[in-house]
Amino acid sequence: MLFQPSQAKPFHCRLSPKHQQGVVIVVALFIVALVATMAYGMMTRLERDTRRTSLILRDTQAEFYAQGSIIWALDQLRSNWEKQKPNQVVDPLPIRSPVIDVNGYKITSTIYDMQGRFNLNNLVNTDAQADFKRLLQTVDPKLSEEKRQQIVKGIVDWITPGQQHNEFNQFYLELAAPYRAAHRPFFSISELRLVKGVTPALFNALQPYITALPVATLVNIQTAPAPVLMTLSPTLTLDTARAIEQVRARTPIVTAQQFIELDIVKNHHIAADKITVKSGYFLIETTVAIEKQQALLYTLVERTAKDNKAKMTLLWQSKGEW
């Protein structure tokens, strides 16, 4: 007798209409949540991109306005030279432009005399090295003579070509973020931060009194602040330097010889070949502000003269710092 295996009947599970509606609602809610999340992400990204584009456009517009203010400064320096009068100071610096408001942008420029500061690239000269040590002592009296000498040696090494293998380069290469000395003149005073022995505090103390110019320069005694005046002679004290500032505020000093013959100066034996009353290098600081956004542009310019005609040359520009 043959037995046929019984065939299992398929199992069918039917959801009730209420259960089917519940599944549809869950799926619909999931899709809505997914679409909402994607839409939020897209809107956030669009808002961010729009804001970034707005900032870029504002920065571009601010730089455009800044260049216009620099033209004002160049014209001012050119005019000062070509319209100079006897027994008067050529450049009564600093010169500040009036605040100009253009389409919501507030623009202003200030011209500073860079020959009223100590030129770091003068340190190739031995006499200038002694002068700079006095400036170091003025801004940081706690700095030892040994430390001052070490810093000066580090700067001289930095600006001297060809010295690739020495104690300074070895020091720089062993730092956590190694680098090499430039072995060329300073292009910017910010490079001084990299020199062995120069701390952030010391750099900040020096910053108002130093510059980095492409050639060796004289100190303009008409615009130099007291700490820079003190570099001109080892016997010149801070009180004397401040007294000189008061004298020149009352009476313009229009020649180097006039300065040397001042009663408060003549006993300090300041060399005439260290000083001048006319400058050729200037820094233009331009600020453009709109709402909470601000752009800062530094421009170094050189003024040369021939036949009483001034020629202005833009040497470099830097955003944010120089």
TrEMBL record:
Which residue intervals define the domain T2SS protein K second SAM-like in the entry?
219-277
Any Pfam family matching the protein: T2SSK
**Domain named T2SS protein K first SAM-like: residues:** 116-214
Give an example GO biological process: protein secretion
Which UniProt key words apply to this protein?
Cell inner membrane, Cell membrane, Membrane, Protein transport, Transmembrane, Transmembrane helix, Transport
For this protein, the record's Gene3D superfamilies field holds: EpsJ-like, GSPII I/J protein-like
Its predominant location is membrane
Annotated membrane-spanning segments are: 20-42
Where is the protein localized? Cell inner membrane
What GO cellular component is one of the record's annotations? plasma membrane
| NCBIfam families named in the record | T2SS_GspK (NF037980)
* Homology family: Belongs to the GSP K family.
- Spell out the protein name for this chain: Type II secretion system protein K
Source species of the chain: Aquicella lusitana
